[in-house]
Amino acid sequence: MSLDFLLEIGTEEIPHWMIPKALDQLRAMYVGQLKADATPRRLAVWASDMVERQADSTRKIKGPGVMAPEQAVAAFARKHGADPSALVRNGDYYELHLAIPGRPMIDVLAETLPGNILGLQWPKTMYWTGGKTGPRFIRPIRWIVALLGDQVIPFEIAGVKSGNVTRGHRILGSSSIPVTTANYEAELRKSFVILSAHERRHKIETEASNLGAKIDADLLETLTFITEYPTAIRGDFDPAYLELPAEVLTTVMRHHQKYFAVESAPGRLAPHFVAVMNTSADPDGVVKHGNERVLRARFNDARFFWNVDQQKKLVDRGDDLSHVTFQAKLGTYLEKTNRVVELVKELGGNAHAQRAAELCKCDLTTEMVKEFTDLQGIIGGLYAKAQGEPEPVSQAIYEHYQPLSMEDSIPETPEGQIVALADKLDTLRGCFSVGLIPSGSKDPFALRRAAQGVVKILAEAKLDYLLDQLVTGELHAFMLERVQHYFREVRGYKYDEVNAVLASGVSTLADVEARLAALAGVRPTEDFEPLAAACKRIRNILKQAHFEGDGPLDQALLEPGPERDLANRLASFVMANESDYSKRLVAIAAFRPSVDLFFDKVLVNAPDPAVRTNRLTLLHKLFTEFSTIADFSEIVTSGESK
Amino acid sequence: MDTFQETVFKLKKYWAERGCIIQEPYDVEVGAGTMAPETFLRVLGPKPYRVAYVQPSRRTADGRYGENPNRLYKHQQLQVILKPTPNDVIDQYLGSLKAIGIDLAKHDLKLEEDNWEAPTLGAWGVGWQVMLDGLEITQFTYFQQCGGFDLDLVPAEITYGLERLAAFLQGVDSVYDITWAPGFKYSDVRLADELQFSVYNFEMANVERLWRLLGEHEAECKELLAAYAKYPDKHRFPVLPTYDQVLKCSHLFNLLDARGAISVTERVGVIKRVRDLAVGTAKLWVDQQSLDAQQESAA
Q1: For A323, which of B84, B135, B263 is closest by C-beta distance?
Q2: Does domain A314-492 have CATH number 1.10.3210?
Q3: Does A230 lie at the interface with B, CB-CB under 8 angstroms?
Q4: pTM for this entry
Q5: The complex's ipTM?
Q6: Chain A residues within an 8 Å CB radius of B85
């Protein structure tokens, strides 16, 4: 018989961003169909197929040998409370088969649940009772509902006994609600708790959209997990604030107040916002009024910062950067700026790019960036524009932190690309030179992100810098990992295609991409995979023969037939020197019948050492010619596994 | 509508009814209510304690010459320490909001993650900022460590920003428009304070002398810390005056910082100097408390 199971861990408000991962862990707690959902104050898990008791099992105990004295055999049986006649013969030994009745599931759960609950992994835990050695959880556990069928699963954590009583919404709900496995979710709803995160998300999205909000996915997720009963309301602000840059207004609304912005047309802010309350309604407009008041104060601050900051131009803030540390061993932002300017020159940046590099960190000393750190770069760009710097300069400053993630786009302008590249490269080179190299999950200077940014800019702007000239040593290896990651995860190439292309050398990333595109294009054709398999065979033959020589081919030693045909074909292929990667690959794939025939009819390991060397030379030349675009022996062919 | 002082009275009364000692503000300059010995020292060790007090808190760098409607050089915090934390601590806190006239059913209340760390005190905790209609009205923290010690009894620290709360309750946009007492605005009581201290802190404080004073108070503190080990009657030892020296150093650090006299590289060093004093004093206090407890149980 199967029973309904329900566990609710009632807590104080859990940080919103930790909840989805906790739910994943809860779902994995038992084998079977566990469902889980959560609000900030409760983690709930349930199932409808929990067995009433575990299956019976048999424990086999090995006894004395069949040749043992009778007394010893009897003593063995008695020791386990069994009659000697119950012993079973298994080969040369006696065995006792003890029937272990399955335990009631309620007992098993009562024993294991506390460990499962306290065993959940959180980014940061606390203790709240029993001192440092007391139980740890993300926030204090205040109640527990644990039911199997209509029975309470009895256990205790941190002085809280499990029961069948839950609590509703802090303000609107009842603080004591007896529930059953069947009515749990419905009872919560009566007490203004929507258990389903999916439903809360949908409610927010629908209501906010109806009020004109521009939906921001991250903010939507945050709001879903900081509310138990979300309701959207719309507020207004004085249109005079629209004089402030949209970036500043949006940051204040989104990051500081968790409001959605409202647009009158795409890219044009309207003087409204949408806030999401954790309550059912705002009949008197009290909440609207309060939020408007807070936003007004915030916008006033921003306007004040803007005005103060204009009193000292960016260009006059250069020296102030000598008071801002970039990194203890790498000096101040003034020193970093000087390095970046030099690097921009080296990379061939024009006068605008050099000017942008000179000014790009100056906004770090402004009041606006001190208050809204997320806007670094953007503020610098806006100020540069307001202070009359040419458009390419202000734009380059504006976008030089891009891309901030794999999804973010790269700077649009060539000046922005070069400054962004130089800034990130300087950080990477500097940190690697003083031993600040990321390891495992430790990457305090976000070097992976910086390296990923470099790769993305090089590849997507199709810049013709050679990777080998930008980075060396350990940093080169680190960058190669990012290159692999980028082409696999972002561009969706198969891992063996990426390996194959990188194995034949890296020049520019645009070239890597062109080779990858050609390779992926030719891969589905029928000749390709067998040819790749043949390449692997060639590589193995050369490796086994320790053959590295690259002397000329002796035409006289070539046997007429498949061997000579292959050599002639190779010669005309070399002559043609096709530079289009796709056409070249198609031509290579077309070698397949000749290669197959060669392996069928010709013995590489010929008795005559001169013939043998000549054949190895032929294979070596073939392999080298084939590998200019990609090393086909890295391709995993069907029949092989990863 | 309640005046500022009326709201403070109500909060004090509310917490007095829940077993809190109502203390008066500490009389040495502090940057936050947490730094007053009623919090910093009392949360250490195994003795339960409950206290509430208003603490004027000086944030020298936040001074705005009385011109910014929301930023103050000195603001008033109502600090509540409940050690150990009662199980219904959040309900008790919500009760205090009702006590000052907030009908929670008409408002939007959220507890949003906000952890707290004070490097100069060797202290940290986890908790929330309490948001009421989008306004942060309270900082709520479960202390985990203080003065470098893991805490025996985890206290809840509830810190109300009184000016914000009063401006909200009175529906005014500037703290200076808060009615402090009948016929007196916040500006009547405190505006001169804000202006003059901003002028002093940013323009006139003598940097050289401040550094010297910092050195003097640090020396005094270190001397006291070093004297404890050999001091015969530990019960009499002036741990509390030692802590005053820590507070003096911390305040001088803030003054120097506001004057722009501390470079980034120096900054880390000065913070460490103050932390060492704070952690050293916490050690003495814990030791003295445990010796006193032993004597009490022996007697």
Answers
A1: B263
A2: yes
A3: no
A4: 0.81
A5: 0.94
A6: 128, 140
